[in-house]
């Protein structure tokens, strides 16, 4: 009697792959109204997003999955277009107009001024993919609350920080995953964004989604 073949784990849409790494040739350029801003040696359309320089990555999903890393382009797209981080399709529930979201201690931060909302760096998860995500993601076994939100908007980034020098070159400061507000005009010019953070509004627990596709 032969044993059944093991079920292959689906790689979520937002997970980075080994062959998606791209060169990062950075420098500081003079801004039109004075001051310096982090830039690439060969500027391209799409380098800037939400007013901040974004890390370059490929979007081919080639190579072994890097389970603890997110592809910046796909994470950003999920946040702005409200796509499911597992399947990459629209996450908004067509019946209610609300967006299913799995919140964790590591990716969600409450805001004192918004008791019914908060900040998160994790994209939404559509209703159909919630059971699979809860069953297969180790992080979600540590802490998770299944919710729905009314809307979300870009608010901040997680970023690596740089400083000028020597010469026009950009030198890493060694600071990684620093949360920088999109309104922070002082630090944004020294920021290389790796993930987009959104502010969610009207967050409501939705335990009924856990066992329903």
Report on this structure:
The protein is 10% helix and 37% strand. It has helices at 72-81, 130-136, 138-142; strands at 15-17, 26-30, 36-40, 48-49, 52-54, 65-70, 99-103, 108-111, 114-120, 145-149, 151-164, 170-172, 178-181, 191-201, 204-205. Strands 4, 5, 8, 9, 11, 12, 13 and 14 form an eight-stranded mixed β-sheet that branches. The protein has a three-stranded antiparallel β-sheet with strand order 7-10-15, with no helix packed on it. The radius of gyration is 19 Å and the shape is globular. The two termini are 34 Å apart. The model is unreliable at 1-7 (pLDDT under 50).
Helices and strands in order:
Elements lengths: L14 E3 L8 E5 L5 E5 L7 E2 L2 E3 L10 E6 L1 H10 L17 E5 L4 E4 L2 E7 L9 H7 L1 H5 L2 E5 L1 E14 L5 E3 L5 E4 L9 E11 L2 E2 L8
Parallel strand pairs: 5-14
Antiparallel strand pairs: 1-6, 2-3, 4-5, 7-10, 8-9, 9-14, 10-15, 11-12, 11-13, 11-14
Keywords:
mainly beta; three-stranded antiparallel sheet; 15 strands; disordered N terminus
